[in-house]
Amino acid sequence: MAEPVVRWYWQETGWQQQPPVPDRGAEFGDGLFETIRLNRDLQAPLLALHWQRLLRGLVQLDFPIDTFQRCQQAWHDLMDLSALQQLAEQPAYADGVQLKLLISRCANDLAGSNIARGYAKQPQQPANFTVLLRPAPVWLSPEQPVTAGINPVRLASQPLLAGIKHLNRLEQVLARAQFQPGWQESLMLSSDGDVVEGCMSNLYLLEDQTLVTPLLEVAGVNGVVRRWLFNEAAALGVRVTEGQIDLPRLYRADGLLFSNTLNGFSVCGQLDQHTFSGPGQVATQLLCQRLQHRLQSVFVNASGNIA
Fold first, then answer.
1. What are the distances in angstroms from CA 160 to CA 14, 49, 62, 73, 302?
2. Interhelix angle for 47-60 vs 224-236, to 10°?
3. Is 40 within 8 Å of 88 (Cβ atoms)?
4. I need a labelling partner for 139 at 20 to 30 A (CA). Which of 53, 106, 121, 147 fits?
5. How far is CA 243 from the centre of its chain?
6. Which Pfam families has this protein been placed in (predicted)?
7. Domain coordinates of the chain in residue numbers?
């Protein structure tokens, strides 16, 4: 049975269920999105990290200066919506809410009298706000290793877009189509052959009790859980650093971890024909259990939305 999906659109008058407004997001991928996990009480403990990345993306894509303020108003309106409260009380949402927030620049023909053409835009062209709501997935079990492979699709180098979650995810769409039977994730390389990220996650190598995650200067998404880990590393007693990672270094690692907002942390058991095993893999799995437990406790013990 297909999982329920709810779609709402925001204007200054509030959230409504209405047909989508044509915009440059659909035309050109001109926009951003954040996938935010809410607990059953509609609390979003990592929301401040989502706002930080979103703000950077709005600056990178040159949205009007009031877009972030309007987005926060839309968020507060959403959290006050009785229909959202009723949704979260349904049995399907027992593990929380998966909320996808899309911010896209409105279409040129809606931008006013001075209509831009083609790729051009007006300086104050406003944004549209959309949310997609689904039941949050069950947290991954760190005791069950993930099977992955090296994806044949390479990530293009574009420093102006690196780190942010823009709407044009065609590389990930192409990469997901290349998954082999049994893969739960795959590693994506840069055009130079360096490891960047998973198709749907950030990744970390365990080397001599230190987690090393790829640099994201020219490609990749700076994940919310990735940044949470950097912020919490000292409290967790974990050493985390960034570095350039090629395939030989990857295969020499003690183990490999993945992370994303919806699933938390998972450990890789097999990468193509390479099996992670021995004491290094045991250490990686124990670390994964500790990180996943701490992240889940943040959602369970959340005292309110961070906004």
1. 33, 20, 11, 27, 34
2. 130
3. yes
4. 53
5. 21
6. Aminotran_4 (PF01063)
7. 6-135, 146-300
| pLDDT at residue 123 in the model | 81
CATH of the domain spanning 6-135, picked from 3.30.470.10, 1.10.287.90, 3.30.240.20, 3.40.50.740: 3.30.470.10
Which residues are identified as catalytic? 35, 165, 197
Mean pLDDT per block of 10 residues along the chain (307 residues) reads 70 74 87 96 96 98 96 94 92 94 85 68 88 94 93 97 96 98 97 97 96 97 98 96 96 97 96 95 96 94 47
pTM above 0.90, yes or no: yes
